[in-house]
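ingest -> validate -> predict -> emit
validate: passed (alphabet ok, no gaps, 85 aa)
predict: started
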Amino acid sequence: MLFFFISAICGIGGGIFSSQIFKEYSLGTLGNVVTGFLGGVVTHTIIVLVMGGTAFSLAIVGGFIGGVIVRVAFSIIRQRMTTDS
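emit:
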């Protein structure tokens, strides 16, 4: 359970970090935190299922990268939806 929380917190960090780089695609503070959290949690689940276990480094790096990926993906989807309308 500790690794789950670490992945979730690092995912939030990844979501916030990526919003600093892609400022024009920001989802707002709450949107960045939620998508980062979701990315961290999903990445943690995938790591547990694929690797069969966890470690601090996997939880930290996986959560952070997952948060960045999900946050950027939601930004791209949002941008496509607003430009097509």
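Residues 46 and 52 are 9 Å apart (CA to CA).
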